[in-house]
Amino acid sequence: MPLKTNDPNKKTWIPVPMDSDFPIQNIPFGVFLTRDDIITIGTRIGGTAIDLGALHQLGYFEGIPLTDDIFLQDTLNDFISDGKKTWRLVRNRISEIFDIKNETLQNNEEHRKIVLFTLDEIEMQLPVQIGDYTDFYSSKEHATNVGTMFRDPENALLPNWLHIPVGYHGRSSSIVTSGTPVRRPMGQTMPADADSPVFGPSKLVDFELEMAFITTDANALGEPIPVDEAEDYIFGMVLFNDWSARDIQKWEYVPLGPFLSKNFASTMSPWIVTMDALIPFKVESTKQDPEPLPYLRQKDKKTYDIHLEVALVTENGTSTTITKSNFKYMYWTMAQQLAHHTINGCSVNSGDMMGSGTISGPTPESYGSMLELSWGGKNNVALNDGSTRKFIEDNDTVIIKGFCKKDGVRIGFGEAATKILPVYQPKKNK
Ligand code: MN
Predict the structure, then answer these.
(1) What is the pTM of this model?
(2) Domain interval for residue 251
(3) Positions in the chain short of pLDDT 70
(4) CA distances from 44 to 9, 152, 227, 370, 412 (A)
(5) Are residues 142 and 119 in the same domain?
(6) From ligand 1's centre to the CA of 151, what distance in Å?
(7) How far does residue 406's CA lie from ligand 1's centre (Å)?
(8) What tens digit of pLDDT does each residue of 21-38 get?
């Protein structure tokens, strides 16, 4: 089926501001609450949210095999389950409906009033019910930096790292959408000068600049996904901040890996950008040496050129861009991660989420966490209001943004913004 949605010359009758993340070539999917308190699946062009449930009820998806209520749901899981062919048919149709030359909806005021919303009339929800969440550790620069700080600069990468896309199973219950504040966690730590652990607020709360991909039902239990087919089972990508408490992490992570230091919260951007929308931004992936084992050898080993940046906004509203990185720096591709994840027969479901791991670039200005930016708390990170940070303080807001740009088309992801609140205080009995 031809992809009609990526034509850089395509124009829409919906107003799209300059440098919008959401031109007609993007057509992401999300879930929102409308001004009438109805939950629906939608898309977005410029600053306009589009109710796909209403469009479907009005007959605009006629001819596409969809159940009547496919968009009248509070998650995208069933739509994602319909598979790549259906995602393409739906995006092609949306692209036609909003094409500047198409007057059907454009000239139907009654329908427009039902289908279109301004962003202040809607409230974005978590777009998928995440069954399982896995986090990888696939940036060589990040793994090297952390290994250098915590272990030995001479042997920064552990012996398995260049052979396995290392990962761990995370927790989906605490994944929240952009705008949801997160409380500083309490926990157990072992201070450097102490001989027994202490309990209290984490002192080293950190962000992790990541992206995540969302899968469809990919395989039955016992059946691996071949690496060259893996991308067909990826629905799309989001920005992802994998909140971390470094002091809790340091004390708990041996021998079974991170636990409470990671599962208190992770933040995702609410619009899922499809893999089809990202096709024009494919680039060569990092050369891998040594060559991986055959099940990880990908014929067309491409990745995506996605500019990433993190802003820290202090309580007084001052914003500072503290790092700029790029998704293309990843050593392992998403296809390799998914092939590795399922090589033992582990099944993957619609709405599962896989985090990339912290995406650090080759230079100190491109590191993807405060742990690296402050080099383990040794250096101060300067902010525009004159203050400094080593880690994230209460009432700081961390905002991850990301976009691709080529041939005058910008496809972006919006943002994943999170304010860190002080620790939870139990309510006193009256
Ligand atoms: Mn992580």
Answers:
(1) 0.97
(2) 133-421
(3) 1-2, 430
(4) 19, 48, 32, 32, 12
(5) no
(6) 19
(7) 29
(8) 999 999 999 999 998 899
